[in-house]
Give the backbone structure.
Amino acid sequence: SQQGEEDPQALSIQEGENATMNCSYKTSINNLQWYRQNSGRGLVHLILIRSNEREKHSGRLRVTLDTSKKSSSLLITASRAADTASYFCATDLSGYSTLTFGKGTMLLVSP
Amino acid sequence: DTAVSQTPKYLVTQMGNDKSIKCEQNLGHDTMYWYKQDSKKFLKIMFSYNNKELIINETVPNRFSPKSPDKAHLNLHINSLELGDSAVYFCASSHQRGGQETQYFGPGTRLLVL
């Protein structure tokens, strides 16, 4: 089955810097979601972007979607140590009842 | 109150044993899922139930059997545990089925098979 592929696999930045993570997928989708996973915890939903949307904002998060390139990016602005986590994109396949998750990007934000 | 809860949080057992993991959601959702997350953090769907009906059954050994006594509960029973079953198992729920739905995850059950 299709899966999103996040890039980079790991990212280390300083507090206050911006963090950008990318997700590529293989076939057409209806929706793409981003989730965060803190160490030892379950995933938490961050944002959903539909295939007819190009950009979406939520607080310090900005998500873009380029369906022609089959890619999405998650930008976290003014990062904080508390943003340290793994970030996953999840895509749906048309007619498929659930999400397929990528392998995630591990983000480390140092104080 | 915890929205999606799983028990136990940790499970250490010997090869060949049979074990169960329980999941409950108090969100009133119709759809529940089981995922397996391996040591490389890859999260793979195992099963999905909608209103107690099995709707997704990925390629999972038949040693794994989900059971949904009601739509608030989805338990996972594993027979004849193997070393390769060691992983973190996450339960999740969503209001309805479909890729447009936000999924709410439990805290995970860390299974270690010795």
Remarks:
- The radius of gyration of chain A is 13 Å.
